[in-house]
Structures are given as C-alpha cells and as structure tokens.
Amino acid sequence: MPSHELTQHAAETLRCLFMNGPLFDWNIPSEQGRHELERCGLAVRFAGWTGLTESGLILSVALGLHIEKDARFNTSWGTP
Fold first, then answer.
1. Domain covering 3-75 assigned CATH 1.10.10.10 in the classification
2. pLDDT at 22
3. Is 13 exposed, middle or buried (0-12, 13-18, 19+ CB in 10 A)?
4. 65-76 vs 54-62: helix axis angle to the nearest 10?
5. Which domain of life is it from (predicted)?
C-alpha cells in the first residue's frame, strides 16, 4: 500500500515507531494504525512490542522522517 493510502492513524503510528520505536503496546498512538501497518508489512509485533520492518524503515526515510529525527537528535544534544 503506497504511503498516500495510509490512514491518518497509520501515518502517525509509523512516525512514532520511526522516531521512538520499537514501542510496547501501551505506547502505540493507535491500535488501529498498528494493525494497518502490520497488514501492509510495514510493522511487526512480537511479545507486546511493535517495530518497523525493513519496508517500514524505507518508507519512513522516503517520507523524510530521518531529517526530522536527525534534527531532533542534534538539537537535544546541543550540537550545531
């Protein structure tokens, strides 16, 4: 499923997993979004933990989430 077809719940869950994941069940922003990502092969769940698959990582980078993550990391550590 192309990224433009992801629901808002799935897109937010993808973003959260890329920025902070893997995440335990109670930290997932949307159970519905997680299920959608699993059905699309973008996330996998095991023993209460959900993480992105290789396809999920590729999509996240293609969407530019790595730029936001890099900026957040560099800002939080005080590097220019």
1. yes
2. 95
3. buried
4. 80
5. Bacteria
